[in-house]
Amino acid sequence: MKSPLLYTFGYEGLDIDRFVSRLVAIKIDRVADVRELPLSRKRGFSKKAFAEALNTAGIAYTHIPALGCPKTIRDRYRADNNWYIYTKAFNAHLASQSPAVSELAKASRAMTTCLVCFEADFNYCHRSFVARAVTKAGGPATAHITPTAVIADAPLLAAA
Predict the structure, then answer these.
(1) What is the pLDDT of residue 156?
(2) Distance between CA 57 and CA 78 in Å, rounded?
(3) What is the pTM of this model?
(4) pLDDT digit string (tens) for 23-41?
(5) Which of 2, 67, 115, 137 is least surrounded by Cβ atoms within 10 Å, i.e. has the fewest?
(6) Angle at the Cα of 28 (from 25 to 32), degrees rounded to 5?
């Protein structure tokens, strides 16, 4: 049996119905919410309402705060807008979360899982780093969901 993909999807710019419909169309079994704090100003995306909308659609919900981006890192990025510093800081945090990464790798082999966060552009969201860490820990290959496509993960390589 072929291993499922591990997906990522950001809800920025989408309402809850369109977001959930997209997940259903791709046959997602479980959402892993990788926001440190699952709160949102967007209606339907705070933890309780989000879990209810997903469950109504037959999608399981789990929140994994250990794989969210810590507030100190988010605040620094808001202040300096330096993606390199953000990436370095988040990856250092992620390296200290190996139990959560390993558990997610194991779980994502059993059920088609989608990592969810706010940011629409997976190239500039911590969920892509989380997904790559999960794949490296033995989880499925990663693909990113957009409103109109599914894109295989292809991390940028640093120039020599």
Answers:
(1) 61
(2) 35
(3) 0.93
(4) 999 999 999 999 999 999 9
(5) 2
(6) 140
How far does CA 91 lie from the centroid of its chain?
14
Q: Which residues pair with 153 in a beta bridge?
A: none
Q: % helix / strand / coil in the chain, to the nearest 5?
A: 45, 15, 40
Question: Taking the domains of the chain in order of start, what are their residue ranges?
Answer: 6-152
SS3 of residue 145 by DSSP: strand
* Architecture, CATH, for domain 6-152: 3-Layer(aba) Sandwich (3.40)
Longest dimension (CA), the chain: 49
Beta-carbon count within 10 A of 6 CB: 26
Rounded to 5 degrees, φ, ψ at 43 are -55, 130
What three-state secondary structure class fits 49? helix
Percent of the chain predicted with pLDDT > 70: 94
From 8, 134, 122, 4, select the one nearest 66 (Cα to Cα): 134
Within 65-160, residue ranges assigned H as helices are 71-80, 83-95, 98-110, 126-136
**Tokens representing 32?**
């892993």
The residues, ordered by sequence, that sit 6+ positions from 145 with a Cβ below 8 Å of its Cβ are 7, 8, 9, 22, 23, 26, 114
- Whether residue 160 is predicted with pLDDT greater than 60 in this model: the reply is no
Helices (H) and strands (E) counted in the chain, each on its own, are: 6, 6
- Name the token pair of 22: 């997209």
